[in-house]
Amino acid sequence: xxxxxxxxxxxxxxxxxxxxxxxxxxxxxxxxxxxxxxxxxxxxxxxxxxxxxxxxxxxxxxxxxxxxxxxxxxxxxxxxxxxxxxxxxxxxxxxxxxxxxxxxxxxxxxxxxxxxxxxxxxxxxxxxxxxxxxxxxxxxxxxxxxxxxxxxxxxxxxxxxxxxxxxxxxxxxxxxxxxxxxxxxxxxxxxxxxxxxxxxxxxxxxxxxxxxxxxxxxxxxxxxxxxxxxxxxxxxxxxxxxxxxxxxxxxxxxxxxxxxxxxxxxxxxxxxxxxxxxxxxxxxxxxxxxxxxxxxxxxxxxxxxxxxxxxxxxxxxxxxxxxxxxxxxxxxxxxxxxxxxxxxxxxxxxxxxxxxxxxxxxxxxxxxxxxxxxxxxxxxxxxxxxxxxxxxxxxxxxxxxxxxxxxxxxxxxxxxxxxxxxxxxxxxxxxxxxxxxxxxxxxxxxxxxxxxxxxxxxxxxxxxxxxxxxxxxxxxxxxxxxxxxxxxxxxxxxxxxxxxxxxxxxxxxxxxxxxxxxxxxxxxxxxxxxxxxxxxxxxxxxxxxxxxxxxxxxxxxxxxxxxxxxxxxxxxxxxxxxxxxxxxxxxxxxxxxxxxxxxxxxxxxxxxxxxxxxxxxxxxxxxxxxxxxxxxxxxxxxxxxxxxxxxxxxxxxxxxxxxxxxxx
Length: 664
Fold this sequence. Notes:
This protein is of the alpha/beta class.
């Protein structure tokens, strides 16, 4: 050719690969499928030549073999027995390394999904609902975080679950494909441990959960609070030492019955569930600046931070907020200050609600029922007014049940701080206590709960026997015919006394024996003195209504009568009685019997908020009413200038009984 090129100069044609046996090809493909992508590319051409097949055919064969192996591995992984306790098994293709969770993307290599975290177990509530994963990790500052990740977040819109994790300090890949892989990993991971989710503080089986999520005691499986309240840590915050609290706070309550009583109340809440007692509490009523709030803080200091922003709450709250506060205080002490700041129209309903251990039923937007809040709590309240007076400001009358659920104990400065412990005045003692409360708080309840958990587990009958003995001791303080309402309050005082004595026996309260008992007995007597005896609240109200009317109007609105020659005559006919309510007949002992006209009887009962007929029946039952003939509670009497008239004849003993009944 012109350029001198000939066929002899051309390179020899590449020889066609010689076909190999199927077994040889299969072995070659199997070997190649086990190589990494880089290794496979290095051997691909030579292997195709050696196996006697084309490159395209080899690629397809290797790809199919890898898919087969992956499917077999996935099936084998799924058919393995469930993981045991403490074991975590990631789905095939995912692995947790030192730098976090990765997904094996085949030829693309490993894809980083998230910073390292630990799956502590699968979580659900006691009813087997609300499933999720209990996770733990450290944020970039080294702070530990735990969170029960709800499984439902894996099924909602992209980004919601990841945002929750990122918000809690866990780094997550922003790549959309990586986030989908993270969801898949979390949806398929298996954990051998189980965790019980709870929604409130308090007892859950044999374990006690504090508002910050701390668990004291051992349950059948781990217990985790689903969503601790935002202020949970402050509710049970600790400062100083138990020894410091004992020396600077608790010791100063010795000899001061109100202070010893409220401190004992701090330990009564955890006893409600073990002893089967209902919620309830006490209200400290007295004028301002006598130390009521400080006394309340003494009790709260056993549990946590005893100031605003911590365990000290206000009555000035909505019903919904009070429900939340009660639930957060589950099986513990709920302290409410400043009753006068509450809406008088809501006080009675709030007292009932707190004692009834259940909030209002509410609906979601889709008209399905929300979870009703429930709790058990011991309530301590303070205010310048007692509950009946507060409710009366709204023109209402406090039901007897509400007053028994939160009975009012009158307090004054001398009554709260009679023992000054070397201080010059109650004010000096209160100043020292204020400083001590900031230095030491929150340690006593944790020590008490640790002992109570052990006692409940090892000696439950002993705890019940001690409670029975204390109840019997307080029952002896009451007359045999004491009303059940009074017995309920005495039973609650016995609970407080038992709580204080247990704390003393467990070396938590540095008090002499029976200090808590004496304090509770003193508060019971104060309450009985205030209410006017051991009859029911309704009966006490009936007696008080008539007694108050006679005290206020007995001298001015009743015509005085005395006997002359066997007939009743006016003692002072020259003195006209304005707005006459009745007559008063002088007895031989110098006391007066009061004859009240029926229309006036109805008027005084209506103004006092009592039923006229029930009021008369109570006076008859107590021996204070001289009844008429037959079934008539009023009797026919002859009155000068009037003639025969039916009246309610109230015996002089009613006024004389007031002093006797108010004496402890």
